[in-house]
Structure formats: C-alpha cells, structure tokens
C-alpha cells in the first residue's frame, strides 16, 4: 500500500513538472487566431481566417493527423495590447500554434513573445522586416512577404517606366516606412530620385493637406502604401483632388486588394505590385478561387491566399513530425525543403522563413487586379541581421 502511494505521488510530481505544451496522444491541435476583427483591417483579418480554415477543411479538418481547435482574439490592430493578447493565448489558452497578424507593430510584439516562449508562430500578412530578419527563429514563419519586397518590385517598375522624380506617401509606422525604403532602394538604383517622403499617423485618413503638397511639388509619379479602409479613402481622395489624370499613382498591391469594390471607378487603371493577382488563370488558382467562392460566397484576395498558405506551410511541418509541435528544428527543416503549391504560384521558403516568390505587375481593369507581367522574379528578402 505504501509502495503504491509513493508511486502515485511520483507520477503526480512528474505530471506537475511536464512541459505546458506536452501533447497527449490524439489530442487536438489548439490554434490561436490573433487577427483584427474590428477597425480598418477587419476585412483583412476575416479573409486570412477564411483562407486558413479552407485549407484545413480540405485536409479533412486535421493538420499533422490532429483535429483542430480554434481560439480567437481580436488584436484590434493595437500594438499596445499585443503582448497581453498573445500571452493570453499562450498562458491562459495553452495554444500550440499562433496565427497572426495584419499590423506590423502588433506582429513585432507577437514575434518577441513567440521567440521567448518557443511557441510556433505563422505570420499570414504583417510584413515587418525584422520578423524574418533580426528576430527570426526556428519557430517563426511567414506566408506573405516582407514590406521590402512589394516596395522594391514597384521601385524597379517605376524606374523602368522612365519616371525620374517621385513623391512617396504612407502611414508613419513600420509597414509604411519599410515599404518606402524598399521602393527607394530599387528606384534610386534605376536612376530615379525621391523628392519627398510624406506620411501621417496610423490609421489617420485626413489626406487633403498632403495631396495639396503633392500637387505643388509636381512629381513625375507618386508611390504609396495604404491598405484596408485607409486605401479606399486615399484612392478616392486622390481622384477627387484632380491628381489621378495628372500624376500617375503606383502602389504596393494592398492599395487595391480587397478594396476595389469600394474604390469603384477611382481605382481604374492603377498599377500595383504584389505576389498575387485576380486572374492568374492557372489550374491551381482557379481551383482555389472556386472552392473559396463556394464556401464563403466571396471572391478571395491576397489575404485569403496568405491565410491558406499559412495553413499549408504549417501542414508541411506538422506532417513531417506527426503533429508533434515540440520538434521545432524538424518542422523548420521540412518547411525550408518544401515547394509550397500556392494559388499565387509555387514558392520556396528562405533560410529566414520568408517566401521567395514572383511579384506581379497588376493593373486595375474593370474592377479586377489583372496581371500584366512580372515586376520582379523570385524576389528574395535580404533578411538583414538574421541569425538562427
């Protein structure tokens, strides 16, 4: 009897000191969705969630052989709340994987906590360069882009079109700053000059004074980074100020992705650069678009693709370890070796865990972001400062 009691005490002690994320055989995979459900990026967060869940549904509701349980947090696109929100998912809800987010400032906080705790993090949008640069880790992956990439791709395009003097305009936060930096690097390499960088605080949409300044500067063209509701208002205000027909407007693709219906005729003819377009007309993309439309009664955009591919990348890693999320090195190795069969076109993942992918030059034609060529082929983010 004494022996039995001692064994029970020893077993209880072992359980008490077991790792928080130790997985019982057949246990559910808890996925924390930390995405914006309110505010200017709400529609983007919804598209990412839809895309992620679509891929999981196509796999029979399982990843790595484990059924999925979702836990959701509205990150409100607020960096000040990000650390508390991500800690709730990890410490209170004991999630195995976190998926998020849209806002680069929020993603930076998420990446720090994920790196400190070793929790798997799939970033399905936010392009903050540092996430796959100085902050990169075995357990952090991105299925989207770095802010540098679409900016750099468009910088190459604008230079090749012969524009010499350009003004940039964006929100003053990580995504805007880094997008402009990528644009300037390529544009200046191509012989161009940036006359002035204009900005306003996120998520402000009072553009009139800045548009007046653009008119007075008379640049050959304007480069911009805006997304969501802010992109809708900027495009409409740009046209209302009489600038559309006078000074060509170019942007990172988020300017017109998921926003075209609201922008209407004011967006017609705009050029953007992005790793996805509405009418790629490939068998893979056509199948994805049909499945998404049938499931959600909506047309997919780049955010839906990025959510879909976040789930696909996660599945590659988890299948390699039979669902054991504690095997971070093996998960990372499997994803880096893979060729991801994305609706955007197949891509690989760099040593920094960021996609190496083509960027399309798109033009808005009759309410669609039509691909009119390749802006930059197999573009690799520099990943400056990354140390695994």
Task: Describe the protein's architecture and organization.
The chain has 388 residues and is an alpha/beta fold. Helices cover 41% and strands 21% of the residues. It is built from 12 helices and 14 strands. Strands 7, 8, 9, 10, 11, 12, 13 and 14 form an 8-stranded mixed sheet that branches. It is globular and about 65 Å long.
Distance separating the two termini: 52 Å
**Number of DSSP strand runs:** 14
Calculate Rg over CA atoms. 22 Å
Structural class comes to alpha/beta
Which residues form runs of ≥5 with pLDDT under 50? 1-20
Approximately how much helix is present in the residues? 40-55%
Shape: globular
Give the rounded overall mean pLDDT.
92
SSE pattern, N- to C-terminal: HEHEEHEHEEHEHEHEHEHEHHHEEE
Q: Tally the helices: what do you get?
A: 12
SS strand fraction: 15-25%
Major sheet characteristics: 8 strands, mixed
């Amino acid at each position: 009897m004494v022996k039995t009691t001692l064994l029970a005490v020893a077993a209880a002690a072992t359980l008490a000191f077991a790792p928080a994320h130790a997985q019982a055989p057949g246990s559910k995979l808890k996925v924390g969705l930390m995405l914006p459900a309110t505010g200017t990026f709400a529609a983007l967060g919804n598209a990412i969630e839809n895309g992620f869940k679509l891929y999981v549904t196509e796999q029979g509701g399982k990843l790595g052989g484990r059924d999925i349980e979702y836990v959701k947090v509205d990150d409100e696109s607020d960096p000040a709340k990000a650390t508390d929100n991500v800690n709730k998912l990890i410490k209170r809800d004991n999630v195995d994987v976190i998926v998020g987010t849209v806002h680069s400032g929020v993603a930076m906080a998420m990446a720090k906590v994920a790196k400190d705790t070793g929790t798997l993090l799939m970033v399905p949008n936010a392009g903050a360069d540092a996430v796959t640069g100085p902050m990169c880790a075995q357990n952090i992956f991105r299925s989207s882009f770095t802010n540098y990439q679409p900016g750099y791709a468009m910088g190459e395009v604008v230079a090749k079109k012969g524009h010499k003097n350009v003004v940039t305009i964006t929100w003053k936060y990580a995504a805007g700053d880094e997008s402009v930096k990528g644009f300037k690097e390529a544009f200046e390499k191509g012989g161009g000059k940036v006359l002035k960088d204009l900005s306003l605080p996120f998520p402000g949409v009072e553009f009139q004074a800045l548009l007046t300044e653009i008119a007075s500067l008379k640049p050959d063209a304007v480069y911009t980074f805006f997304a969501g509701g802010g992109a809708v208002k900027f495009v409409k205000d740009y046209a209302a100020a009489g600038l559309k027909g006078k000074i060509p407007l170019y942007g990172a693709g988020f300017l017109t992705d998921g926003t075209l219906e609201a922008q209407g005729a004011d967006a017609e003819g705009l050029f953007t650069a992005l790793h996805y377009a509405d009418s790629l007309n490939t068998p893979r993309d056509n199948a994805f678009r049909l499945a998404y439309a049938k499931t959600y009664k909506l047309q997919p955009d780049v955010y839906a693709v990025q959510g879909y591919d976040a789930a696909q990348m996660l599945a590659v890693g988890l299948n390699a370890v039979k669902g054991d999320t504690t095997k971070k090195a093996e998960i990372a190795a499997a994803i880096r070796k893979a060729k991801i069969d994305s609706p955007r076109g197949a891509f690989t993942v760099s040593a920094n865990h960021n996609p190496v992918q083509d960027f399309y030059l798109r033009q808005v034609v009759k309410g669609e972001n039509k691909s009119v060529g390749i802006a930059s082929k197999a573009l690799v983010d520099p990943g400056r400062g990354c140390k695994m």
